[in-house]
Write a structure and sequence with these properties.
The chain is of the alpha/beta class and 280 residues long. It is built from 10 helices and 7 strands.
Length: 280
């Protein structure tokens, strides 16, 4: 008698698995080896799954995994581009993981049924999470939850999104930190520092670049963004003097020298609540 192979998940896919509603009919888009649906089926978390991929090679590996794990009969395999081969009435939860944020947004934008509040979307971008969050907000999705996971020494997030038709204010914190629980998620603080550190390195590079109108404008925008993100974490300064002191402290810490015009622009942006988002 052949022993069933036990599906094993990487920490990244384990983070996705933990956010999938129990009992959901799942579709795993870009499934590759189908480890995620196989694990969920073996552990009784879901009754059925669709494993889809746009290439036959990964789909063949998915079939092999399903057979080895004893869940072939409960898994459907679709050779299709994105969500094109999946009907909305077949699923309660959709997973799109391990792709860039732009590609995930593109896949969602090409499906005619995204505006369905009955479907939960589990999205795990490897790059450009800001782009993906902005797409979701623009199309009136609500981020219900967001958790951090670590893979190969880097931190990523898993987004649980749902179409609600409700608008979300696209503040810097909403775009860069999403629905992360900075108090209770043990990795969220580290993720926040990763985001801020990347932005600080960008500012340092701009400071060292050749001065010019384009560089100066970009430096001002990046500095405004960093201050706005810091402000979303710490209590906002209540006075102009406090804001100027914060700018001066930042300049000392980061060895950045803003000109008077740049400092005034940052002051105006912070005091007026202007949010300028760059990069992603």
């Amino acid at each position: 008698m052949t022993m069933e192979k036990r599906a094993e998940l990487s920490p990244r896919l384990q983070g996705v698995a933990e956010m999938i509603p129990e009992g959901a009919r799942l579709a795993d888009v870009g499934t590759d080896h189908a480890y995620l649906p196989a694990w969920l089926l073996q552990n009784g978390r879901i009754p059925s799954a669709i494993a889809s991929d746009m290439r036959e090679g990964p789909l063949s590996r998915a079939r092999a995994t399903a057979r080895a794990c004893g869940c072939f009969e409960r898994m459907s395999f679709r050779l299709c581009d994105g969500l094109s081969g999946i009907a909305p009435e077949e699923v309660d939860a959709l997973v799109i993981a391990g792709m860039g944020g732009e590609l995930i947004a593109d896949i969602l934008s090409r499906w005619d049924y995204t505006e369905n509040p009955a479907i939960i979307y589990l999205l795990q971008p490897m790059t450009r999470p800001v782009h993906l969050r902005q797409w979701l907000y623009t199309h009136r999705f609500t981020l219900r939850e967001e958790r951090c996971c670590r893979a190969n020494g880097k931190l990523y997030t898993v987004l649980r999104a749902q179409y609600t038709g409700c608008a979300t204010e696209e503040t810097p914190a909403a775009l860069y930190f999403g629905a992360l629980d900075l108090e209770n998620d043990p990795l969220a603080g580290e993720y926040r520092e990763q985001v801020l550190g990347r932005l600080q390195r960008r500012i340092t590079g701009l400071v060292e670049a050749k001065p010019g109108p384009e560089r100066d404008a970009e430096l001002t925008e990046a500095t405004k963004l960093l201050l706005a993100l810091r402000d979303s974490i710490l209590p906002a300064p209540q006075s102009e003097e406090a804001i100027l002191a914060e700018i001066a402290e930042y300049e000392r810490d980061e060895k950045v020298a803003l000109c008077g015009e740049q400092r005034s622009a940052v002051l105006a942006a912070v005091t007026e609540g202007v949010a300028v988002v760059t990069g992603g």
